[in-house]
Amino acid sequence: MNDAPRHTPDQTAGVFAAYDVPDFFCELMNRKEIAPPTLQNVRDRLARFSLADLRHRTNAAETQLYRLGITFTVYSDKEAIDRVLPFDVIPRIITAAEWTHIERGVQQRVQAINLFLHDIYHDRAILRDGIIPADLVLKNPNYCEAMVGLDVPGGVYVHINGTDLIRDQSGRFLILEDNARTPSGVSYVIENRHMMLRLMPDLAAGLPLRSVEDYGLKLHQSLREVSPKGVLDPQVVLLSPGIYNSAYFEHVFLAREMGVPLVEGKDLVVENHRVFMRTVAGLRPVHAIYRRLNDEFLDPLAFNPDSMLGVPGLVEAYRRGNVTIANALGTGVADDKAVYAYMPRIIRYYLDEEPILASVETHICAEPNGLAYTLANMDKLVIKPVGESGGYGLLIGPHATQAELAEFRHKLQDNPGNYISQPVINLSVSPTLCPQGVEARHVDLRPFAVTGRSTWVLPGGLSRVALRKGSLVVNSSQGGGSKDTWVLAS
């Protein structure tokens, strides 16, 4: 990886006077193509700010976020459990043409994932045809036997999908992973926009920005579209594990945005294989549940008998077609990091199309060739456990010590099926306000797709930024922050 900076004085002024444009694709400064006038306009406006002004507005933003309760929980930190996700006031900008490409690619991906899930829980044609190893699916810990033979409304298994994208040194967007179970972070997309419009109105004024305000409405409508047949006015609820969940703020936020009740397992009851919500006026039917807890906690009669978070009898009500659960049970197979390696083949198999968005080259350590390649190139690869998220448990080879490499070698040899490896991608960077001034920091993007009768993609997504210099890990649990994502309408 080449970290040598490339200074371009003609692109810098004011707050950017000391900004060294690195030898990466920079979202604002060196996009490797002619920048649209709006992008240049944003550069010029930003250059007129002082560092002191940007810091003042950043402090105001984080104070407001904390007062609004927009926090996440870090259970491993004994000193500070509730944290504000660090917010950067320099937005990440996506052009209209770039967004069209992303949108089409995400829609294609979601369509293929839903077809794949229907197939593996029904005919299993893709397994018989040898496109993907049967054991990788049928022995996957996320494979759910309760879903076998179950026809879900509209064929929609993944109603809400978060697709993690990165951008390489050439500016090409690549899919890093799928989040097809209970993807989080959309609340920050919307609140970041609210924050920017309140604190940086002079930067956003008059710019042709796509709105993010429709997410709650679109999500509610899509869940109504795939509610059980014959229900004229479906009741949707959001099921949360409760106030101690790390994303509880988001649960409250989304219930409010959707205009639906926020419930916990104790608020729901199943009678005669139908789901009801307890209210002061008595039991009220529930037809669609946007659940924000994992499969194993949903129903103590079907999964973990010790779960106090779920609803006894919910899975049987679901199997009988009396309630829709979003996302469906067993969707974790589709976002497994090993299955990810087969997604280009899955897209070709079901859609007879080439992937619009490419995937990162992936080596499956459960396979002899993949393991041998990984062991021989550990110092050049990112090695990830297939079941972890949040940036935990991975090894970034070029940044690892010899002791860390040796320790990870033993892990690979002891349990190769638990790991995949990928080349280190030189992620794109974006100007970011740092203690020493405005500096380049690596970013990724998580667009959110909502599927009912069709798939709608929220214009933008969660841009996460690795605040530590040189770090490629953008996850909030690992010290990352976020930016507002501006999609240009023209």
Automatic annotation (TrEMBL):
Which residues does the UniProt record annotate as the domain Circularly permuted ATP-grasp type?
A: 91-466
Q: Which Gene3D superfamilies match?
A: 3.30.1490.270, 3.40.50.11290
Note the SUPFAM superfamilies from the entry. Answer: Glutathione synthetase ATP-binding domain-like (SSF56059)
| Protein name listed in UniProt | Circularly permuted ATP-grasp type 2 domain-containing protein
| Organism of origin | Acetobacter orleanensis
